[in-house]
Amino acid sequence: MAGLVLAALVVLGWAAPAQAESGDVVSHFAIEYLIRPDGSIDVTERIDYQFASTGRHGIYRELITRQPFGDGSDRDVRYGVGNIRVTSPDAPDDVEKSTQHKGFRTDWIELKIGDKDKTIPGRSASYEISYRLTGALRTVDGLPELYWNATGNGWDADLDRVDVRVRSTTAPLAVSCYQGVIGSTEQCPTRLADGAATASAYDLKSGEGVTISVQLPVGSVQNAQPDVVPAGTFARRAHLGPATIGGSVLAVLLSLAAAIGITRATRDRRYAGVPPGVVDPSAPVVIDDIDENAIPVQFNPPDLPPAVGGRLLSSSAAGRGAAATLAELAHLGVIRISAQPMDGKEFEKSGGLQRTATLVSLDKLRTMDDDYRRAFVTEALGPSGSMVLDDPDKDDAKRFAAATSALTKAISKRESDFREKGGPARFGLYAVLAALVSLAVTLVLVVKFAPAGAIYLLPGGLVAAGLFYAAFRRAYGYRTAQGRALTDQVVGFKRYIATAEANQLRFEEGQDIFSAYLPWAIMFDLADHWQQVCAELAREGRIPSSPVWYAGPAFYDAYPTGSSFGDSLSTSVSNSSSTGSSGSGSSGGGGGGGGGGSW
After folding, report:
1. pLDDT for residue 222 is more than 80
2. What is the DSSP code (8-state) at residue 316?
3. What is the pLDDT of residue 450?
4. DSSP class of 187
């Protein structure tokens, strides 16, 4: 859908960028970065521009403010660009600032410098652009790093010479530089001297750029974390006219009917005549019509692995499956988790501790039905049988990411055993085909009736969304009667964990109820609450003061409210595959970007 909207905007002339004249050259592009202790960066760019002909008004400069956070990521990163100033000793320096967009996820500020009523005398001009940049730093292996596409690869002009200089309150530790087209690994000369990191590049053609990577000492910069947000969405505005409203409304209503019809056909099944949560294959099966609020509390965990049970309750819980499985393996005695105090901002969410998981014995796992957990812990801990969970190195993070991906697929497969597809056999295929036809017709109408054709984007999108939703519901299916009964058990047990109070819990004396139920609390996103309850039990002497599988500082004191063991474990696990440039990179890599030219 993003491509459809973007194509429409280009046709309508809303997304067409300014273009430099062929033959323009930036004879010298000097960029200086001053990294401040608070993580913001003062940037000064000096541009000596040679125009291919006379009669030009000025230049434009593009500064990225939002972009995808890595290839294939479902998150975006935002940068702040403020306090913009432009001066020129020999050309008009008026600035027209506008925000541009490409698709859902890429934004940039365009600075159009010059005067539309005046042309530049001669064929050269110099400009100085200064601004305050925030959100550009990130932390890699504990070190603050500026991994930044300094020039951008969007220049329409050639770049004869580029000089980049990076300073901070403390001297940089390392510097790397890459030049060329996006993805190029060709390095450019660098130097560390006089408390600064410098890099230079020469003879860059249009579309080529310079990317730098500068690492600073630990603790030298605060807020060295990117501003990461969920992937962007596109908001449309449309005005429907009388001539089109009938067909548009009809198409929308038909897609809505398809979505409603398949939703009804894919309602969960349930065993009739038995209480919620009871699995009775001999009972008749009916459409589920019981309100989830009517499902009673269950005081014992369901007979399911926590990761599977949580996934059965909600697909959004899948991301917590690895952390829950680690906690489950620890409780079963398969692994042991040790913790040691560590300084550094990256360990704040884990209570200032770095945890390590170590294999104890795979014999603790039953062979039957436990292969996915066995495979997970074997791959995650690797040949050494050990792995750092908080801020792991690149190799550990890569191995753990692969293990987590395999685990998530295995959990989804287990969960699918309790689902069946509903509706006509080929409904999903027909719905997808109809949605694609709807998108194609919408694009034809947008182009044919430009610029007013943009009004078709809204009904076309609604039709496609309804049909894709219907296809998804058909593919996702419904819970079988057995699946619904097990889900009822999970719902009841979640209610028990959510409402548990220390003075109401009943269990065998000496039982480590915290460890037994922690995997479930993680899957329910209730780990912090569960630890608070069990901390009170530990203070009363009703449960062990520390789990048997844990070694480190006093357990309940070391992980305070808001940074409980389970919550912080989920955070560390989900972040374990995030890496920076780590000494390798390419032109166009890192954050930032943009370009420029003349007008």
Report:
1. yes
2. G
3. 43
4. B
The larger pLDDT score, comparing residue 87 to residue 454, is at 87
CA torsion through residues 296, 297, 303, 304, sign: positive
Predicted TM-score (pTM) of the model is 0.51
Q: In 3-state terms, what secondary structure has residue 351?
A: coil
DSSP string, 272-302: TTS-TT---TTS-EEE----GGGSPP-SS--
Question: What distance in Å separates the CA atoms of residue 209 and residue 212, rounded to the nearest whole number?
Answer: 10
Q: Which residues pair with 143 in a beta bridge?
A: 140
CB distance 573 to 326 below 8 Å: yes
What is the SS3 assignment for 343?
coil
Residue 370 has what pLDDT?
55
Please work out, in degrees rounded to the nearest 5, the angle formed at the alpha carbon of residue 468 by the alpha carbons of 264 and 235.
115
Q: Are 139 and 122 in contact (CB under 8 A)?
A: no
**The two three-digit tokens of residue 297, written as one number:** 């509390």
Rounded distance between C-alpha atoms, residue 24 and residue 49, angstroms: 8
| Angle, helix 457-476 to helix 427-448, in steps of 10 degrees | 170
Structure token digits, residue 313: 């309750």
Q: Which residues have a Cβ under 8 Å from the Cβ of 225 and sit 6 or more positions away? A: 137, 138, 139
What is the average pLDDT score of the chain?
83
Q: What is the 3-state secondary structure (H, E, C) of 452-518?
A: HHHHHHHHHHHHHHHHHHHHHHHHHCEECHHHHHHHHHHHHHHHHHHHCCHHHCCCCCCCCHHHHHH
Q: Which helix or strand (DSSP H or E) is residue 403 part of?
A: helix 394-416
Q: Across the strands, what pairs with 214?
A: 146, 175
Cα-based distances in Å from 447 to 229, 268, 440, 455, 544:
33, 43, 11, 11, 70
Distance CA(46)–CA(287), nearest Å, equals 70
In the chain, what are the helix, strand and coil shares in percent, each to the nearest 5?
Answer: 35, 25, 35
Give the span between the Cα atoms of 49 and 277, in whole angstroms: 74
Check residue 510 and give its pLDDT.
Answer: 63
Judge whether 179 and 203 are in contact, CB under 8 Å.
Answer: no
Query: In angstroms, rounded to a whole number, what is the distance separating the alpha carbons of residues 191 and 166?
Result: 11
Taking CA 306 as the corner, what is the angle to CA 305 and CA 312, rounded to the nearest 5 degrees?
95
Residue 323 vs residue 594, higher pLDDT: 323
Tell me: the pLDDT tens digits for 468-514? Answer: 888 888 887 888 999 899 999 999 999 999 988 877 777 766 678 89
**How many CB atoms are located within 10 Å of the residue 568 CB?**
24
Q: Which residue from 325, 339, 342, 330 is spatially nearest to 403, judged by alpha carbons?
A: 325
Q: How confident is the model at residue 89 (pLDDT cuts 50, 70, 90)?
A: very high
Contacts of 263 (CB under 8 A, 6+ apart): 473
Q: What is the mean pLDDT of residues 214-236?
A: 77
At 511-542, the pLDDT tens digits run 788 999 999 999 999 988 998 888 888 888 88
DSSP 220: S
